[in-house]
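Show me a record, fold above all:
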Amino acid sequence: MNSDLKRAIILENYQNPHNKGLIHDSSYISINTNSKSCIDEINLELKIEDDTIKDIKFDGEACAICTSSTSIMTESLIGKKLSEAKEIIKNFENMIDEKDYNEEILGEAVVYSDISKQPNRKNCALLTWRGVEDVIDEKSNK
């Protein structure tokens, strides 16, 4: 994917994020993700039923990378079994950390494949993905 297309996808997901807006439903798991190094603070709501992520909502204040990454993450993970979501998240983390990853399962999330060139932005891209990973790990350990 060329850099102009990557930039366009990131900008579109920043300006018109998918699944933005919390619904405050008790059937959702609520978590707060925040960065220790910048302004990024995103609240997530996840609905998990039958070992499947049925819905993800988010809201908060964050930079373009964090907001767009969260938007793309929600689209990537909704409808996935927890094991599938975990695999997608692991591949996303590997991509950001410049390790081996399966590009095919990441979909639009591959737009962040060059984020390692800006090390200070890696946490912005990973913040909410790690939050969802924590929820999956907690659900898996029950």
Observations:
- The first strand starts at residue 29 and ends at 34.
- The chain has one domain: 3-140.
- The longest helix spans residues 122-140.
- Residues 110 and 116 are 12 Å apart (CA to CA).
